[in-house]
TrEMBL record:
Gene3D superfamilies: NAD(P)-binding Rossmann-like Domain. InterPro entries: NAD(P)-bd_dom_sf, Sc_DH/Rdtase_CS, SDR_fam. This is SDR family NAD(P)-dependent oxidoreductase. The chain crosses the membrane at residues 12-34. It comes from Mycolicibacterium arenosum. Belongs to the short-chain dehydrogenases/reductases (SDR) family. It comes from the Bacteria.
Length: 259
């Protein structure tokens, strides 16, 4: 039996689950899946209406509002959640944004917009880890799940900041896992392929070969149940292989099609 056995997984699944960016897409899908299993779920997101709408559709689910880019707000959220749900065993750091930037244009680009993507996608993941790890470390078994992307393996040139933040999330998650290897906290990275959500609102059309949300959520839950450290779903597996075997070919493939 491994350290992270199925028995441990069931133990963890009994505790409360906090999901950032839980007001839509992947976060809302995972929230519904945990709720259906009977877990206490808290969805925390930027837009109050969105998170409250998700919670209203699932009796017993709770909503909270946070900007993950603001470390004070994240710390305040951890304080509220820790006091109300001392059995918190799963934190899913899922909030993210994606913008298209063209550095080949006349420029310069809007520095605030460039920075905001780093603040949410990378610093947000760091702030959530920093604020919630003390709560998770107090549990006999717990897990922190950072949501990366297949584009962290091979960048989509049209989304250069997004892709680089996801590469950084991958590196940060590996380092965290190493530091916490003797703790009770499992550090997980969930690595989606392109999934049909609002993330792609800045693209002209939904990217081809996008995975349906339900299928993605089922695969993610199966990976969590299996206790995997890295849950690489669907075509993200191909991008991982490209990044190791043939990065140049991977770049060609990804950049003929949007994420
Ligand atoms: N869909 C894909 O193809 C795909 C592929 C790989 C990875 N991912 C990753 O999966 C995660 C979820 O994305 P999604 O596809 O489900 O897109 P989504 O529907 O746009 O969900 C992103 C969520 O993050 C929230 N959010 C954004 N900025 C925030 C902030 N500063 N603080 C708190 N919450 C914030 C949004 O809330 P508001 O709308 O209220 O601002 C939204 O509910 C992201 O990390 C994304 O990078 C997605």
């Amino acid at each position: 039996m491994t350290w992270w056995s199925k028995t441990n997984e069931e133990e963890v699944a009994m505790g409360a689950v906090l999901i950032t960016g839980g007001g839509s897409g992947i976060g809302a899908g995972l929230a519904a899946a945990f709720h259906a299993r009977g877990s206490q779920v808290i969805v925390a997101g930027h837009g109050r209406e969105r998170v409250e709408g998700v919670a209203a559709r699932h009796p017993g689910m709770e909503a909270d509002v946070v900007d993950v880019a603001d470390p004070e707000q994240v710390t305040a959220l951890a304080d509220r959640v820790g006091q109300r749900w001392p059995d918190l065993t799963t934190v899913i750091s899922n909030a993210g944004i994606q913008h298209l930037f063209d550095f080949a244009g006349p420029g310069p680009l809007d520095a605030a917009e460039l920075g905001r993507e780093v603040d949410v996608n990378l610093k947000g993941v760091i702030h959530v880890a920093n604020a919630f790890l003390p709560l998770l470390k107090a549990q006999p078994r717990s897990r922190l799940v950072n949501v990366g992307s297949g584009l962290g393996y091979v960048p989509l040139a049209a989304a250069p900041i997004y892709s680089s933040t996801k590469a950084a999330v991958h590196s940060f998650t590996i380092a965290l896992r190493r530091q916490l290897r003797s703790s009770t906290v499992q550090i997980v990275e969930l690595i989606p392929p392109v999934v049909v959500t609002d993330l792609h609102r800045n693209l002209d059309q939904i990217p081809p070969r996008a995975m349906e949300l339900d299928a993605f959520v089922a695969a993610a839950m199966a990976g969590l149940d299996a206790g995997r450290d890295e849950i690489v779903v669907g075509l993200a597996k191909a991008l991982r292989i490209f990044s190791r075997a043939s990065p140049a070919l991977g770049l060609k493939v990804v950049n003929q099609e949007a994420e």
